[in-house]
Structures are given as structure tokens and as C-alpha cells.
Design a protein that fits this description.
5-stranded mixed barrel; alpha+beta; 8-stranded mixed sheet; 15 helices; 18 strands; elongated
Length: 498
């Protein structure tokens, strides 16, 4: 495969370029100058530090390190762009200002090589802040040529597969991962400051539970049993609430054996938290404060743009019961419907069909009307509350209507950002709901949960009234970065093998 042509001139075949670079490495090794034997380089400044403090640093000696991204030579003078963790800065190398042998070696360096530079901060005649090189050390040899900025790594799938190259030639993508790190730190600080304790729950479980999802299954050889990678951390965390740890959270990876699309990756990150003596209203207050404060702290504004929409994260988000949302957007008043048959018929009338694995109930009809007709219309932050009990096996029933639960989901730009309950703490009701899950599973619903006898035993010891909340970290980072695909905020997304 030939490389891109520059200025109409044919370029060497890639295999020839690879040979040239390997020959250079062999020459260095034969001369006892193997760059891979270098163990460290003690730099003391970055490109951005030099630019931010140029007046104070001008004329001072510095040591910088990074990757050569361009070389422009004019005989005995060379200019290079050095890329480090903060950005780029120009290097100025002049033969009569350096050891002659060092300069000759430097002239053979390739774009992509990693170097350490001893030099002096100065400004060129054209006014560009630069480092005047006194010595340049080759720290690592790049044996593969980098793709050109505008002709190379543009294919998104290749960028996801080779994130290391993506970060080199498209350094702006690093912003997403910096914001991700800042958001995760903000979540931990926010919860720690409210007396929550971070705990770790099992990734391998003998029972699938805590959510409605298809799990990954693995096998434990010593015990000779199949185990499930966790689809949620809910049930272990609520066991800790029973044990008297009143505020707990787990921030980590979740695994669901489901489809992949711009909003879904088989492994993703959540934070689940539980607070004793609280309810889902407290969780709404907490979630709103957490996410709005994150925007203000990380971005310096409540206003963001995501999926082509302008969104305000300023506090005061709408709180809307699911049946009222369906009435507003679909014209169906489910609270005036008393039978399952009438509810299913009303849903079908507007073109909403119930999945074959779902029972034709009032609650399932209400949920499907919302899911298929309303969710896509929710742009500004909206808490959808009071979900049907049929789709909420772990949430406490509403004292006002036993068909509903004290549950909410937050939607922004028709995307679910989090899910919360007033947690069910009645072991008798919980057993009945687990039994319905078991029956659904027997009918072929492999996303339905299992009977968890140990969790029921825990509830029988008594769990205080508790509010629980699960937040999708990846979705929140997508919102804060404006990313339209979850793969843009996960450094190493799941990809189909080549």
C-alpha cells in the first residue's frame, strides 16, 4: 500500500518505509546507541507551562520531552514540533549551537520518534515561542510512520481500534478522557462529602439480579458452576444497608450481553448509591445537584450542547409522573383506565405493541406507550416518576396507587441518565415479585431476574426505608463532552474482531 502523495510526488511504499526505520534502529544498536535502552528522562517543563509563563522563563534552561510531530530542515537549521502531554511547542536546532555529532544523529530522527531535549526558552524572529535545543536524546524509536493529520486516521472504527494512534494524531480527543476523569472524581468527592462510603461488590455472581438485562455467563472451574458477570450492584449494596452501613456506593464496571449502538457498550461504568432513611425524592434532589454542580465545576457553565440540542442543566428540573407524560404526549389517560384489556387496546390504538415476552397488563401497556412514544420527545432534563410495578420489581409501591412505584428515571436529550427507587423493603412483596421474574424467565425472557433467597433472608432481618440511585457514568460524560457516541468517551470500546 502506497502512502499518500504529497505535492504530486510519489511516496515510497509503506514496506520500504518500515525497512528504512528498522535499518536506522539497527545502525543505532550496532553503534551501542540502542534508544530502547534509555531508562528515563527528567523533564522539568511542558509545552503549556512554557507558553503560560513565557515572560518569566524566557532565556532560562529547560528540559522537555515528547514526540516529534513534524520536521522542517534548512541545511544547518531545523525546526520541529514536539508534542507532549499538554500540547505542542516548536524546537529550534542549529548545528553550530550543538555538538556536531548530536546534530547529525538528530537529522536522522523520524517523525514519531520520542525525544528528550535540553534547551533554552526563546522567541524566534517570527515571534513563535520555542525551545532552542542544546542537546537532543532519542528515547524511543517509532518503527511505524504516523498517519497524516488530514489523510490518515479519519476512519472512526480504526480510531477506536487504535486509540493510541488516535490520541497521537488527533490530540483533541484527549479532552473527553480528561473530562471523564474529572467527572468521576467529582462524583466521588460529592458522595464522600455527604458521608457515603465507597465499597466494592462482586463482579462474579451465582445469581443474575438487580436489573432487567441479559448477562454474560462464565464458568468457575474449581467450583464447577456457571457464574454471571454483574449486571448491577444493587442487591449486594442493599445487603450492606441491612447491615447498618447507612450510606454506601460502588463505582465500577457493569457487563450486559446486549446490543451495541451509539448509547450502549457491553461493558460500561455506573455508580450505584443507597441512603437509609431516604426516598426517591431525596435521590432526585441528590442527582440534580450532583450533575448540575459537575457542569458548573468542570465546564464553568450550566449550558451544554448534546445530540444537536441546547440543554440547560441549571437546577429546577421538571418532575413528571409517567402517566401524566403519556397523557400529555399521547392523549391517553391511563389513570381513567381500570382494566388490562382496555389499557392494551388503548396502546394498540396509537400503534404501540407489547413485546411477546411481556404480559398484557395495564402497567406494561403504560410503560410501552412511554417507551415507544414519549421518551424520544424529552430534551431538557426531566425526571419521569411513578413507574408501573410490572417493570419495577425492586421498587416500593406507591401508597396512593399500588399499581405504581416510587421510582424515577432522568432523561436528557431522549437518553436515560439514571434510575432510582424508594427501595422495596417488604420481603413478602419482594418474594412475590421475584416469583413473577422467575415465571417470565421460564417463558423465555432471558433478561428476567432469578429468585435470590439470600437477599430475601437479608430483607427478613429488616431493611430501613432506603433511597437508591444508579447513574450511567458514560452517558453523563457524553453529555458534558457533547459526544454523540459512547465509543468517544470509552478509551477502549468493545469492537468486533477483524
Amino acid at each position: 500500500m502506497a502512502e499518500q502523495q504529497k505535492n504530486g510526488a510519489p511516496q515510497p511504499e509503506l514496506s520500504e518505509l518500515l525497512k528504512i526505520r528498522r535499518d536506522k534502529l539497527s545502525e543505532l544498536q550496532a553503534a551501542g546507541q540502542d534508544p530502547f535502552q534509555e531508562t528515563k528522562f527528567e523533564w522539568d517543563a511542558t509545552s503549556q507551562q512554557i507558553k503560560d509563563n513565557f515572560d518569566a522563563m524566557e532565556g532560562k534552561s529547560v528540559k522537555v520531552a515528547g514526540r516529534l510531530m513534524s520536521k522542517r530542515g534548512m541545511g544547518k537549521v531545523s525546526f520541529c514540533d514536539l508534542q507532549d502531554r499538554d500540547g505542542r511547542i516548536q524546537l529550534y536546532a542549529r548545528q553550530d549551537e550543538m555538538d556536531e555529532e548530536v546534530y547529525k544523529k538528530f537529522k536522522k530522527f523520524d517523525i514519531g520518534d520520542i525525544v528528550g531535549v535540553d534547551g533554552e526558552v526563546f522567541r524566534t524572529q517570527r515571534g513563535e515561542m520555542s525551545v532552542r535545543a542544546k542537546n537532543i536524546t532519542l528515547l524511543s524509536k517509532s518503527l511505524l510512520p504516523l498517519p497524516e493529520k488530514f489523510h490518515g486516521l479519519q476512519d472512526k472504527e480504526l480510531r477506536y481500534r487504535q486509540r493510541y494512534v488516535d490520541l497521537i494524531v488527533n490530540p483533541e480527543v484527549k479532552r473527553n478522557f480528561v473530562i471523564r476523569s474529572q467527572f468521576i472524581k467529582h462524583v466521588r468527592d460529592f458522595l464522600d462529602n455527604r458521608d457515603f462510603i465507597e465499597v466494592e461488590t462482586p463482579v462474579l455472581n451465582t445469581i443474575q439480579g438487580g436489573a432487567t438485562a441479559r448477562p454474560f455467563v462464565t464458568h468457575h472451574n474449581t467450583l464447577d458452576i456457571d457464574m454471571f458477570l454483574r449486571i448491577a450492584t444493587e442487591l449486594p449494596l442493599k445487603r450492606l444497608i441491612v447491615g447498618g452501613m447507612d450510606r454506601v456506593y460502588d463505582l465500577g464496571r457493569i457487563f450486559r450481553n446486549e446490543g451495541m449502538d451509539p448509547k450502549h457498550n457491553p461493558e460500561f461504568t455506573t455508580v450505584e448509591l443507597y441512603q437509609a432513611y431516604a426516598d426517591f425524592n431525596d435521590m432526585m434532589d441528590l442527582f440534580e445537584e450532583l450533575l448540575s454542580s459537575a457542569a458548573q465545576k468542570i465546564l464553568g457553565t450550566y449550558e451544554v450542547e448534546w445530540l444537536g440540542e441546547k440543554v440547560s442543566l441549571a437546577p429546577g428540573w421538571r418532575r413528571l409522573p409517567m402517566h401524566e407524560a403519556v397523557k400529555e404526549y399521547c392523549g391517553i389517560d391511563f389513570m381513567a383506565i381500570t382494566s388490562d384489556e382496555e389499557a392494551v387496546a388503548a396502546a394498540k390504538k396509537i400503534g404501540v405493541e407489547l413485546p411477546s415476552t411481556k404480559e398484557p397488563t395495564w402497567g406494561n401497556a403504560l410503560y410501552e406507550c412511554f417507551d415507544q412514544r414519549v421518551e424520544e420527545k424529552l430534551i431538557q432534563p426531566t425526571f419521569i416518576t411513578m413507574h408501573p410495578v410490572d417493570v419495577s420489581p425492586l421498587a416500593k409501591r406507591s401508597p396512593k396507587d399500588p399499581r405504581l412505584t416510587e421510582r424515577f428515571e432522568l432523561f436528557i436529550c431522549h437518553s436515560e441518565m439514571g434510575n432510582a427507587f424508594s427501595e422495596l423493603n417488604d420481603p413478602i412483596d419482594q418474594r412475590q415479585r421475584f416469583q413473577k421474574e422467575v415465571e417470565a424467565r421460564a417463558k423465555g425472557d432471558d433478561e428476567a431476574g432469578m429468585m435470590d433467597e439470600d437477599f430475601l433472608t437479608a430483607l427478613e432481618y429488616g431493611m430501613p426505608p432506603t433511597g437508591g440511585l444508579g447513574i450511567g457514568i458514560d452517558r453523563c460524560v457524553m453529555l458534558l463532552t457533547g459526544a454523540d457516541s459512547i465509543r468517544d468517551v470509552i478509551a477502549f470500546p468493545t469492537m468486533r474482531p477483524l
